[in-house]
Structure prediction request, 286 residues.
Amino acid sequence: MSSNASSYSNPFAVDPTEIRDINVHARVPVVLDASNSTYFAWKTYFSLLFRENNLVDHVDGTVDSRAMVDDPEWAAIDATIIRWFFTTISKDLFHMVVRTGDDARAMWVKLNNLFTDNKLRRRIFLQQEFFHCHQDEQSIDDYCRRLKTLADELRDIGAKVDDDLLLSTLTAGLNEDFGNAASNHTLMLEPSFPKFVAYLRLEERRMKGVKKRVQHHALAAGTSRGAPPVPCQQPPPPVPPGYFPLPPAPPAPPAAPQQPGGGCHGNRRGGGRKQQQASGGPHLQQ
Prediction:
């Protein structure tokens, strides 16, 4: 950098061209948005990016940017940092913070203040979400990641969440499938959040294996007791050339209705008359 900048920035040389060619989306793989919990990750990625490239003095307030107006290298790097901010925040945030004349330091402070101002209200909101966070249908990784993100955001506004509180909240929010695992954390030597999360991952993997074996055995049992096989239907024999099948016979006519006195009861009465004739006629009543 030029001699004017040497007294303000760190002694390591910074090439504006190399800074401009950095793929910021590879270094900061999140988009800052007020509607989700990405602030802690976004801030952490940018803090590492500044330290890796000796750019901390552009955002930490140790250099008076007004004294660097005439330094083209400083101005070029500052503009690159502002472009990084604009391409890693949501459109709503962009329209909220964009303003002509802001340097990288002003933009950095403005973006951070959006998530750290109104600390009391934000703390109440985050604490409610943190203590009511449950696993439900989430995987262990998704659930634990969500819980840790909320704890980090609470820490950013001064509400410290220690490891014991994080661990107990994690245990209380597990679903019923992890009931035994939740009680086992007290048996660990020096339990911690990372150690218990690693244990839960193994337990989730074991449970998936058990479920898969049960389904396999049920399928195998159902196949062995299955319905009898459906017989194969043979195709009809081929029709020889010149053969014309006869039309189907007409249906038989309906049966004639029975005469009165017929049927089962009539036969019984007829049998009675024949018996009377055979015995010499009806007996007279005395």
Summary: The chain has 13 helices and no strands.
